[in-house]
Amino acid sequence: MPPTDLIFDDGEPLESDRHRIAMNALIRSLRVALADRDDYFVGGNMFVYFSSEQARNRDFRGPDFFVVLNVDGSRERLGWVVWEEQGRYPDVIIELMSPSTKQVDTGKKKSIYCQTFRTPNYFVYQPFDPNSLQGWYLDIDNGYQELTPNEQGWLWCQPLGLWLGQWSGTIEETSAVWLRFYDRDGNLVPLPEEAAEQRAEVAEQRAEKLAERLRQAGIDPD
Predict the structure, then answer these.
(1) In whole angstroms, what is the distance from residue 127 CA to residue 119 CA?
(2) Res 211: pLDDT
């Protein structure tokens, strides 16, 4: 099926503004975490086309967040079309649930991601319920098996080499318990603006130390 026959925008918004912020935060912070790589694609609220029947019926839009590793990350895509990507499916999927989508996200979609996509890691989280985080890893013989959280309640995402866990704070002037990435050592993966603030703080601290050394040497740094 040629790309011109596919629809990449159904006009349906995310469940809420908090869902939108949560999705964008995951995408933007992952780009920070993988800043030294160009061999991945991360998408959010995008169509994933995997069969001609599904494309005709348009009964499955796609994940709220997904990552495909070891692909050309420089190419812009309107959606993910499996038969145009050498048969590659997402390596990691996250659905941002709501009460109205929970049954589908943990039922029909979970089955598709397990049996058809064979996605190694699948996670679900309800942005209005901090205790809703669940995740599964793919066992080749037995399908999805539930991941065991660590002491902080975080779940390990093997394909990305990152933890997924809750973080209480403010993003886009909205305070909530957000789903965030953490590195292997438990450090929060920053958003681009947070990373910029961290760099500015480090630069300021270095400048203050230099000024203090100059004063001790009898030199006025000002």
Answers:
(1) 22
(2) 64
State the Rg of the chain over Cα.
21
3-state secondary structure the chain: CCHHHCCCCCCCCCCCHHHHHHHHHHHHHHHHHCCCCCCEEEECCCCEECCHHHHHHCCCCCCCEEEEECCCCCCCCCCEEHHHCCCCCCCEEEEECCCCCHHHHCCHHHHHHHHHHCCCEEEEEECCEEEEEEEEEEECCCEEEECCCCCCCCEEECCCCEEEEEEEEEECCEEEEEEEEECCCCCECCCHHHHHHHHHHHHHHHHHHHHHHHHHCCCCCC
Is residue 113 within 8 A of residue 119, CB to CB? The reply is: yes
The residue type found at 176 is: A
Record the pTM.
Answer: 0.85
Residue 101 confidence (pLDDT): 92
Find the mean pLDDT for residues 132-136: 98
Choice between 136 and 214, residue whose per-residue pLDDT is larger:
136
